[in-house]
Give the backbone structure.
Amino acid sequence: MKNLLLLFCLLLSPYFSHAQKLTQTLRGTVVDKVTQMPLPGATVLILNEEPLIGTTTSLDGEFRLSQVPIGSKTLKVSYIGYKDAFLPNMVVNSGKELVLVINLEEDITAIEEVVVTAEVEKSRALNEMAPVSARTFSVEETRKYAAAINDPARMVTAFAGVVSTGDGANGISIRGNAPRGLLWRMEGVDIPNPNHFANLGSAGGGISILSAQLLSNSDFMTGAFPAEYGNALSGVFDLKLRKGNNETHEYTFQAGFLGIDGAVEGPFRKGYGGSYLINYRYSTLSMLSQLGLIDLGDFNTTFQDLSYHLTFPTKKAGQISVFGFSGLSSEIGEADRDTTLWEFDYQRYDSRFYANTHLSGLKHSIVLNSKNYLQSALVFSQLQNGYIADSLSTTFQPYRQFNERFIDQSVLLSSVLNTKISPRLHGRSGIYLKRIGYDFLQRYPSPETNEMQTYIQSEGTMYTVQLFSQWNYAFSETWQANVGMHYIRLTLNGTQSIEPRASIKHAINTKQSISLGYGLHGQTQNAGIYFTEQTESDGSKTLINKSLGMSKAHHWVLSYDHSLSPYLRLKTEAYYQYLYSLPVSPDVSNPLASINFEEGLITEKLVNKGRGRNYGLELTLEQFTYNNTYFLLSGSLFNSEYQALDKVWRNTRYNSQYAFSFTGGKEFFSTKKEKNITYGINMKVLYTGGFRYTPIDIEASREQQQIEYITEQTFSLQNKDYFRTDLRLSMKINKKRTTSTLALDIQNLTNRKNIQGTYFDLESEEMVESYQLPLIPILSYRIEF
């Protein structure tokens, strides 16, 4: 650790030189938030600059500000008949132009608009129809939050009600729900799990496939989300992609302990307006193991990904964009060929795990007229997931113990119409049609005979249909309501769900508001569950879970928001979720329930007769960046329980009951005037209750030579509290035409041994504790030019 800090300091030394005043171009487009019509003549000003820097938009709604000094800027955008928009903390660097798309909201009255401070605006979701349990997050946050490593799923663990399910992956439990209840969206359409090392049915993985280079400001929701979002129970990541620079070719390169990362962007040709943005990344986590920073055993762990966003504007037919990503990840392990080193059973296995994800999308956006904006998309995606494991005899003869292969190929067609009837009333309606092609195989030894048995072997197609319509009406400047309906149908078995959604918001005054939201939400089961096979006495096979219905949940949220100052905000939310139609075991003595599945795949028969309830109170105190300092303090007290067929209320696996986090940071500058060199220190502290687990009957496990649980005590035990401190040290150097950043992220700064779980090892016949990741320093260097 001392050597790494010394290396960090040595790398800083070449940059201590005389500073010079550097500038960059800031440009963009100002449009109507609903219809996306350009707004000519809008005023764009950079606040707190002397002399004043400002301009007005052209007939196409475009603006350009040249010779803008580098640093953090606040923009004010004004247009007659619209509310002023404030964009705080816009970071201007010398290495890249800052290109923005600014959405203005029409004022519903003829009197002077209510001006909301820039910092309060930042707390709102980009989606104006989500007044509760929603927050926007920026790319800058995913970069500067300690140990977030440009991963949105790791970054949001700083938010109230969000708990990580493990250090080694980015799965999250939201308000006590299972991780698979999360919905991922990108550019307005549902996408497959965009993470490396993802298992079938999971919503997380080892690390995000999507590079922060492609992302723009996006939304994250934790409950009672609007009608446009379906097939999810716990939360939504609504990701937006930025466009490449359509005037200048720009490049970004990053290298570090996690691998290399490169991005290119620019115009297709001069004067056209179209652009490309492409990012490639290659990493070998084995490098961390070779450096002694993390113990991966004998596993060779690698991943690589490619992501892109291409835009093609036309004169009259709107804009066409092509976007997508591909991620390849694998983990190959070989047992040591010296049997004297086999202390535990798992050490005698050869294994190979792979997870590959691909998505390609074609989107068309067009402004039909001054009232309507249409966006349509066609998306192809494929998930490939597999695991093969062989147990070696003492003579190294392999015996197949597990063979799993899952392929999911999908085609999604969507069309969404945004309509503005008047400044008071606007709506959004759409349709999503999805074809799912599947090819599943799962084989492992039967617990009774110890012979290989096929539990899933199926291929075919199924479809989902989703329809929605939602409308937002402003009764006045202080009252507004949102109502909508979502419909989803699974053609495989004809199950369907009609889901009303509604919310109302009241601004008590310019500093305080209160909101109430409700939603009924349904989610289909993981595809692998539907195709679990059971062999009958006559040798025929039956799909025992094909008729399973959807899991459902009622969400109620009461929210109070108070702006204590222009830079300090307090928010509290109380919520209650009632879950029903949860898949559980048909055996009254078996408390198995899908609400506890992290990855959503089992091979037992299930019925939709389970129930659950999550309720809690959340508090967030946040200072948006002011005087180069920010912090986010969040706390959550909650309870998460479920019932199986025995009608006994039990803890869910994710009922940690409390979660607290502190995230903060400060920037320092080399000089007060030029600010060419910026030093950053960021810290994140997490403290949560431990997850629940079921005690193991040790004597029965020894006798049966397989793990036997005490089922009547399911999830009655709790792991020790989880505590972790992360630290990020960074230095950003702006030179003429380049911006470089050197950073050291240290995960688990105190090297605390947080428990991952407790299991029974069949080889030693003893209980063994496994731990989460130790202290891990990650050094990286990024240059933009």
Confidence is low (pLDDT under 50) at residues 13-18, 110-120.
